[in-house]
Write a structure and sequence with these properties.
single chain, mainly alpha, globular, 50% helix
């Protein structure tokens, strides 16, 4: 992964959706909503996104990257 990270929650969500991984329905719905969300993420949303990125070996979301 190196120093790469996502600076936009929408790009991070799309990366997870298009990676070809098996997602639970709830995860897919969450990520689909984030992919088009322009408002900042809540702390809870940002935490869940970070967990999914880590679980599927994708770069983390930069601090402040949930702000669209």
């Amino acid at each position: 992964m190196g120093d790469a990270s996502f600076n936009d929650h929408r790009r991070a969500a799309m990366a997870l959706l298009t990676k070809g991984i098996n997602l639970r329905e709830k995860e897919g719905n969450f990520l689909g909503g984030l992919a088009f969300r322009v408002d900042p993420l809540s702390e809870r949303q940002a935490n869940w996104l970070q967990i999914l990125l880590e679980r599927h070996q994708l770069p983390p979301l930069e601090m402040g990257g949930g702000n669209g």
